[in-house]
Structures are given as C-alpha cells and as structure tokens.
Amino acid sequence: MKITDVKPFVVDCFRTNFVFVKIYTDEGITGVGEGTLEYKEKAFLGALEHIKEYLVGKNPLNVEQHFHNIYRDAYWRGGSVLMSALSAVEMALWDILGKYLNVPVYQLLGGKVNDKVRIYVNGWFAGAREPEEFAEKAKQAVKRGVTAMKWDPFGKSYLDISNEALDKALRCVAAVREAVGNKVDLLIEGHGRFNIPTGIKIAKELEQFKPMFFEEPTPPDSLEALKAVRDKSPVAISAGERLYTRWDYRRFFDIMPADYIQPDISHAGGIMELKKIAAEAECRYIPFAPHNPSGPVANAATLQLAANTPNFCILEIMYSDVEWRKDITNEKLEYKDGYITIPDRAGLGIEINENECLKHPYKPHTLRHYDGTLTDIRPAKTEFYF
After folding, report:
1. What CATH number is given to the structural domain containing 27?
2. What is the set of active-site residues?
3. Contacts by 69-74 with C-beta closer than 8 Å and gap 24+?
C-alpha cells in the first residue's frame, strides 16, 4: 500500500476553524486526522505541504517510522505549527492502519482498560456575563447529565487582576457552586495569563469552592513560574496543553510543576506521542486529563487513546457546537451520566464528509481572551452533539 495524496480541509466553526487532514492510498483506504491550530491555520497548511512531500509514495502502515523521520528531518523541531501538522498526519496513519486490520485503534495500542471515559464540558457558559447568568447555564448543563464543568471567570485580566475583577470572578464561581451543589466538579481555567503572585492569590481564594483543579495559572513559557504557584497553591494545578512533545514534557516531569497533565492530541504529536507522555506521568502518579476543545476527529482520536491509558482521569469536550458539525462528519457519541462510551468501529471510527466541509470554508478569527468577549464562543444557534 502506498500513500497517493494528503489533503487539508479547513472548516469554519465560529470560534476558530477546524483543520482536518485526509490521507489517501492506492488501495482506497483513507485516514483522517485533526490539527486544529487556532488562529494559525495558514501556517499549519504550509507545514503540511512539507510533510506531504515526504509522505507521498510511502507505506502508511509504518506509523512510528514516519513520525520519527518527519520529526528528525525538521531542523527547526517542535513548536505548535510543525507538531500540529505532524499530529494530524499521525492520527490519520493510525486510522488507516486500524481500517486495514479492521480493528479500532485502541486495539492496536494494547486493548481497553476503560470501556467508557468521564468527561467535563467546556463552552456550557456561552454568552454569560454576570454570575447569575453563569449559574443558570450551569443548572441547565446539570439537567443534561453533566457532572463536571470548566470555565474561565476572570474576564479580560492579564498578569494582574484588580480587586474588583477578582471579586466578580469569585462571585461567579460561588454562584455556580451554589447552583450545582457539591456533587458536580468545577474546573477553573486560567488560560495561562497570570504572574506568580496573582496566580497564588487566585488559587488561595478558589480553595473554598473545592475545584478539581486550577488550570494554567501562569503563561506556558515558564514551567518554573507554574511550579512557584503550585508550591503555594492549596488546590490542584493542571497544565501542559502548550507543551508539544515528550521532550517538552521531560522538563515538566523533572520539576513537577502541576498535579494533572493536559497534553493535546492535536498539538503534542498525536496518539502514540501522548501515550508515551501518559506513561511517563503514570510512573509519577500524575493523572492524565487530555486537553480536547477542538473538533470531532480530535475527539475520536482522544477517545481511542483514553480507552488504552491506565492513568486516564477525565476528558474535556465542548458542550455544544455549530449546527453543521453533524454534517461534516459521521460522529456518533454515546453519552450517559457524565461518561462517553468508547466506540468500537475500525480505525478512529469517524469519517469526514468532504463536500460538507467545503461548504464552510476558512474564516479569520481572533483570540477573545483579552477583549472582554471570552464567553462569546458559540453563535446564537448551536446544537448539542452528545
């Protein structure tokens, strides 16, 4: 079997653009992957063109060999752009291998240790501004069976936070906690935007609400800053979505700056790279909680990995999405009581509809974190997909 083509499909999804990759072979078996790289999609496409030059004509079944060669031959290694393109390609190669052998990818990794995985939802708060609005949306999410939810209550603060902004953030967390009770886990997002003293101050204030974790309190550029917050935080710290390989994670494991790791399958190297990172974490008794706010293909790939990972803890998933998400793939998720069942279809268990993808072409989007529109991540009309 030989690879004949590698094509990207960039699909507008309001908050950003999904970036899918499809690999074609001379035997008619295709594979799909995802490397959704928010706000840098054009850079992704350039990296993919270079990878395509290497892949065409190769045997797609040699997944590890291709990952090794592409990474080795990139003189400017690592980083979000190359690794997102390589992650998408790696997923697609596993998809081909699973279809070729007619087994789900988790079977190729050693089989299941989890039949279902617990999830927490992101995006449940879309459009909320005031604590009361967050509380009402949290109640609605719980009615739909949600048992864990994450959000960033910190407005547009960066590095520091005023007493007024912090008070409002704490009122928001308090309102949500009161609305959902103690049986629902709350996960507080920092989006990597505070300095050390501010991160510590916020962590101490959050303790009263018993959060599962406080995510990315400091920018990703300094693991030492993250560790400084963790050392004085009374609540668990999570991080790692902007570390891109096991080599990036080596430093993380050396200094232990967080209690949970959150690598992203779309950016950190794909399925096998995350499995290796998770195994390193397992040796240190660190729970594996993958970052997963992207599209349906990344979600499918992460579910395959979660099935096979002993120290898997909880998986992020978006609460709702654009109406056309149901059209661009054949995604089918079984959700019950806060868990998603692992699919048993061959490969990643998902296909993209090329024609439907082309109906929603690339649109430029910008980061909302610092302009006061952080919660505007969904259009007025959305659909639940699980």
Report:
1. 3.30.390.10
2. 191, 291
3. 71/245, 71/269
